Amino acid sequence: MTASLALSLSPTEPTDRLLSPAELEAALRDIGARRYHNLHPFHRLLHDGKLDKDQVRAWALNRYYYQAMIPVKDATLLARLPDASLRRVWRQRIVDHDGDHEGDGGIERWLKLAEGVGFERDYVLSTKGILAATRFSVEAYVHFVAERSLLEAIASSLTEMFSPTIISERVAGMLKNYDFITRETLAYFDKRLTQAPRDADFALDYVTRHAVTPEQQAQALDALRFKCSVLWTQLDALYFAYVSPGMIPPDAWRPGVGLRVENGA
């Protein structure tokens, strides 16, 4: 885990030549085709119905931390944007996750997902049971956005170009294969099917217009590689702890903890 994140953060040599906007977009999409986490074995098991209920719970619990920190990441980036027109666009991402009022937004819908697989809300909110690797990866992403150039920070969000595919696979697969999953449980993903492409289009336009040197293009590509590593690393940790070899760290969630009484806790 540490090595892959460190590798993604290492300085990158400029590409040999300046890519056209179309070539840069193709290079960015190629990264997703090879590195996006829909290819991870854990996700293949999740989508194909080959995880048990507690393994699905572990995914929902750990993924909550990523979802909860996205508006923190976006607020960090928003504060760095020098132009009001850019801030007006980017702040919509925060609204999408935090909502306009109590009980609204993507984080609330993810909490409903976690409750739908049996968790007590307060336990999820506490983040006590998440894997250390989850916390490390997510916080590495927040620090990346805070510390790197605006171009790199925005480029790191371009995993959203690939999210409609994984969402479609996830929703269809989970509804088909898990009798404890309902469409209401997965309501989080409904809005993301339109929000993610909107956000990706804006970020892609920004990156292709502002990466105007070979070095800047290399930085944008490396930023997307880093973000793919952030997502992949979280699934590495889930697989290791809850699938094979099944070595759950001492402080991480164990089946039976934090669940509602009516679900047999």
Automatic annotation (TrEMBL):
Thiaminase-2/PQQC domain: residues covered: 26-236
Top enzyme category: oxidoreductase
Catalytic activity: 6-(2-amino-2-carboxyethyl)-7,8-dioxo-1,2,3,4,7,8-hexahydroquinoline-2,4-dicarboxylate + 3 O2 = pyrroloquinoline quinone + 2 H2O2 + 2 H2O + H(+)
Domain of life: Bacteria
Pathway where it operates: Cofactor biosynthesis; pyrroloquinoline quinone biosynthesis
Listed Gene3D superfamilies: Heme oxygenase-like (1.20.910.10)
EC number: 1.3.3.11
Keyword annotations of the record: Oxidoreductase, PQQ biosynthesis
UniProt cross-references to InterPro entries, sorted A to Z: Haem_Oase-like_multi-hlx (IPR016084), PqqC (IPR011845), PqqC-like (IPR039068), Thiaminase-2/PQQC (IPR004305)
GO molecular function: pyrroloquinoline-quinone synthase activity
A Gene Ontology BP annotation from the UniProt entry: pyrroloquinoline quinone biosynthetic process
Family statement drawn from the similarity comment of this UniProt entry: Belongs to the PqqC family.
Function as written in the Swiss-Prot or TrEMBL entry: Ring cyclization and eight-electron oxidation of 3a-(2-amino-2-carboxyethyl)-4,5-dioxo-4,5,6,7,8,9-hexahydroquinoline-7,9-dicarboxylic-acid to PQQ.
Protein name: Pyrroloquinoline-quinone synthase
Source organism (scientific name): Methylobacterium currus
Lineage: Bacteria, Pseudomonadati, Pseudomonadota, Alphaproteobacteria, Hyphomicrobiales
